[in-house]
Prior knowledge:
The protein is about 15% helix and about 25% strand. It has helices at about 1-5, 90-105, and strands at about 10-15, 25, 35-40, 45-50, 60-65, 85-90, 115-120.
Amino acid sequence: MPIIQSIPNLQVLKLHKRAFEGSWWNTDGQKFPHLKFLRLEKLDIKLWETCSTSFLCLRQLEIIECNNLEEIPLEIGDIPTLDLIQIRRCRRFVGESVRRIEEEQHDLGNYDLKINVSDY
């Protein structure tokens, strides 16, 4: 990941099966300053830790068939530019964590964040 995050002006990142090894992805200390679109598809990650400052410009997050993933970090909801989170064919707990993010954002008056969860 350090090599990927060092790509200047990286705006779209699609990580697919075997994109990296391990069941834990910690983006807390990593910065993707220009990333607008992030797709995680068929990854084996179980735990994902991050902070909102890792993805300063993120507008859309898609998570597809990450069957081991336990939840989306709540810090994702604190990304001010985030417009859409799409979850497809993931565990029920992932969908529940996204609903918590949506609820937290509504409590803060942010009704612009769109959530789309389908096919647990």
